[in-house]
């Protein structure tokens, strides 16, 4: 494999944005479940490409991401609630791992570039997805944790992801509320981490820009 892999973070950013933007428009269609799976798989494939460097990250990425893709496909063949929930858990772990590796690569960069900005944005969006899956799994294991109406998994997952990004950005619309102590704890931890991330990220990007400007002068 080449030393430098072009577009690994920008391709990840594009697939994440497609997943977030297209998912709401798939609800209500018969093929919604299959298309949603396809979007998740496309995101996971891009995630594997994004962690292709360093070598240890790629090897761990295979451990997390390949089983996640396999379980997403298998759940269309074998109908099992255990398999369904297990698949989402593995996807959560795969996305979390990708976010950590992406953020690590971004913070270690010496110069500001389009790829580094794409990596930073991807890590932020992955954070929202990971917490969204966490809220979805919590609501599945303990119904009533969030004020989400009962319905198919695709609808409840969408509501959980929406609530996650509203919490991450501290918008706080109030249309979905945490109703249990565990849900409230997850909500405020996500909100705090989201704000810390933005402060650290902006500080890092400004520092790299100042450093690069100083070298030119």
Polypeptide structure, described:
- The radius of gyration is 18 Å and the shape is globular.
- With 217 residues, it is mainly α.
- Helix 4 packs antiparallel against helix 5, helix 5 packs across helix 6 and helix 5 (114-141) packs antiparallel against helix 7.
- It is built from 7 helices and no strands.
- The mean pLDDT is 86.
- The protein has a single domain, classed as Helix Hairpins.
Any chance you could write out the topology, listing elements then pairs?
Elements: H1 8-26, H2 32-50, H3 55-74, H4 81-108, H5 114-141, H6 153-168, H7 181-216
Helix pairs in contact: 1-2, 1-5, 2-3, 2-4, 3-4, 4-5, 5-6, 5-7
Summarize the structure.
The chain has 217 residues and is an all-alpha fold.
Provide keyphrases for this structure.
Helix Hairpins; globular; mainly alpha; 217 residues
Helical coverage, percent range: over 70%
Give the radius of gyration: 18 Å
Largest pleated sheet: none
What ranges have pLDDT less than 50 throughout 5 or more consecutive residues? Answer: none
């Amino acid at each position: 494999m080449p030393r430098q892999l072009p577009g690994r973070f920008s391709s990840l950013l594009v697939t994440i944005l497609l997943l977030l933007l297209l998912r709401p428009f798939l609800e209500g269609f018969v093929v919604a479940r299959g298309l949603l799976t396809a979007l998740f798989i496309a995101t996971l494939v891009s995630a594997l490409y994004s962690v292709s460097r360093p070598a240890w990250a790629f090897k761990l990425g295979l451990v997390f991401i390949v089983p996640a893709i396999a379980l997403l496909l298998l759940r269309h063949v074998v109908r099992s609630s255990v398999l369904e929930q297990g698949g989402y858990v593995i996807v959560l772990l795969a996305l979390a791992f990708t976010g950590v590796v992406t953020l690590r690569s971004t913070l270690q960069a010496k110069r500001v570039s389009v790829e580094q900005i794409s990596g930073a944005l991807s890590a932020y969006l992955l954070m929202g997805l990971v917490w969204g899956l966490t809220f979805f799994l919590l609501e599945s294991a303990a119904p009533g944790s969030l004020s989400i109406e009962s319905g198919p998994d695709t609808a409840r997952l969408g509501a959980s992801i929406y609530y996650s990004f509203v919490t991450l950005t501290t918008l706080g619309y109030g249309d979905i509320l945490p109703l249990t102590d565990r849900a409230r704890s997850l909500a405020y931890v996500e909100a705090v981490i989201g704000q810390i991330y933005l402060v650290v990220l902006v500080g890092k990007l400004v520092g790299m820009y100042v450093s690069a400007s100083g070298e030119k002068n």
